[in-house]
Structure formats: C-alpha cells, structure tokens
Amino acid sequence: MLVGAVLIILQAPRCKDLPNTNWWNDGPLYQIGNIQAFTDTHNLKGLEQKVNSLAQLKVKGLVVGPIHVAPPDEAVNLSFEEISPEAGNLDQFKGFVQAAHKKGVFVVLDLTPNYLGSSGPWFSNSSVTIVAERLKSALVFWLDEGVDGIQLSGVERVATVVPSLWNDIRAIVQNRTDKHPSSRVLIGVTDRSSAEDVSTLLSSTGVDLLISRVLHSRDTDVTELARSIQHLYSSQSQMNLAWNLGGRLEGHMASLVGPALVKLHQLLLLTLPGTPIFSYGDEIGLMDEGTKFPKMLWDSNEELNGTLQVRLD
C-alpha cells in the first residue's frame, strides 16, 4: 500500500489553471463529528476553547456536528434548530462561531437529519419531502447565526426524491444576499466509491464539494485507483473535488491505513488537486480503539494507545 500511495501521487495530474477560488478551496477542512469526544468539557464551550489550537493547524474550515436534536429513526421528533443538550446550547454555539471567525476559520454545520438512526440519513422515502421542507427553514436559521456552510449526507436521495425541494435547499445555502455577501459552501456526503458515480452526483446535485469513498476501497488495484482520480479530475472542476480517508461513519485514518502510513496518506490528501478533508485527531494519528469517536488527546501525558504524535504542518 505504501508503494501504491506513492504511485497515486506520482500519477496525479498536473493542476489546471484555477479560476477564482472560494475559501473552501484554499486549505484543509477539519471534521469534528463528535464534540463530546473532542473536548475536555464535552460541549460547545470546550470547542470554543480549542479554536486557537485548531487555527494553528492552518485549517481553513471546521465541519461540526451534527449537533441538533434527532431521536433515532423518529422523523416526527426531529428538531433542526434545537441543539442537543449533550452538545451544549445556542449561546455556546454563537461563542464558538465568533471565536473561529476571529481566527479566520470558517464554520460548517452538519445538518444530516437522521444521523443517529439506522433507516438512512433522510429516514424513509415517505418522510423525505416533509424532512426536506423543514430543513429549508432551519437553513435560514443557522445561516443567520453565522455559519459559513452546511454539510448533508445522502444528498442523492433527497435530490432524486424531491428535486424541487433540493433546488430550494441549494439556493438557500449557495445564493449570496445583502445580509450574507460572502460565499457559503454546500457539502454533500455519499457512500459511493465509483469515480463515475461520484462524478455523476457532483453534476446532478450541484454541491460545492462531495465527500465520497473513492479512496477508501481496499480491494481496488492501486493503478485503478489512480485512474479513478484521473477520471474525477478530468470530468469535474478541481474546485469541486474533495479528498478524504475516514470520516464520521468510517473511522479515523490511522485505523484505516495503519499508524506507519499516516504521514504518507496525509501527504496524499494534501497533494491531490482539490480540498483535503481530515477528521479530528488525524493530525496525531488518533486510533479508533473500538469506537468511531475516540477521545481526542490534548495532553502529552495522556495514554497514547498507539497514537502517533504527527502534525499536519
């Protein structure tokens, strides 16, 4: 796999001449999928206290959550605009956003509806329309609170089932207004691993970035993987390409590729044309240790459990 990763880097296409970039094209994004595991205080106040440390990683944006109230598989009790008590409260969220903005770091909020359930990110097909309609008003609420973008899993489902509502969702997030003159990002997440499928979804959904599993397949020949990267690069704008290894449901990079190869795969993500996306703890080689949300290690005296002390910079 070491040789394979090097081969991908060597075969990666030369960068095209870039058009004007948006902020999410100018550096890595850093995903914090579980605030309780990430902070010492287990809430948004603790996240605010970590902004200085995160800014030192030179990340361009933080992708936070989901943190809204969403009882598993219960669409009727979904509350997009209410923060789960375990994560904190709205005042804490505002303080975090303000602290991030002062450091020049953007904030993206994951609003995937059924993030704790097993019936899919948008519940059942019969509930997609109702959930998408409720999401529209929630988008306005959170954008008014200062978030710089939205992330949603299963975008292909809502875009297919209710295309008109999906167009409304896109317009709310992506359109600039006098109140929000700066660009805001719409990030989609899919479990597709085929470069052809990912390219089609990028075109059909119109998201600004699409997080996929193109780099995740362990069975794919490395030369074929290089071809997949080439296909995406040739068929889509570099501005829309996102590269990741791991994620909220997949786990951390070190557990997927092995501790010895973390630095190389970090280099891979930072070298490919597009936006690299890391999960919390990837910068130190954090291992999953039986859970997708291991405790983040902030103190060098803490038990490392095999975690590497490596940094993105």
TrEMBL record:
Residues 35-311 form the Glycosyl hydrolase family 13 catalytic domain. One of its GO terms (biological process) is carbohydrate metabolic process. InterPro entries: GH, GH13_cat_dom, SLC3A2, SLC3A2_N. GO terms for cellular component: apical plasma membrane; basolateral plasma membrane. Pfam families: Alpha-amylase, SLC3A2_N. GO terms for molecular function: aromatic amino acid transmembrane transporter activity; L-alanine transmembrane transporter activity; L-leucine transmembrane transporter activity. PANTHER family: 4F2 CELL-SURFACE ANTIGEN HEAVY CHAIN, SOLUTE CARRIER FAMILY 3 (AMINO ACID TRANSPORTER HEAVY CHAIN), MEMBER 2A-RELATED. This is Solute carrier family 3 member 2b.
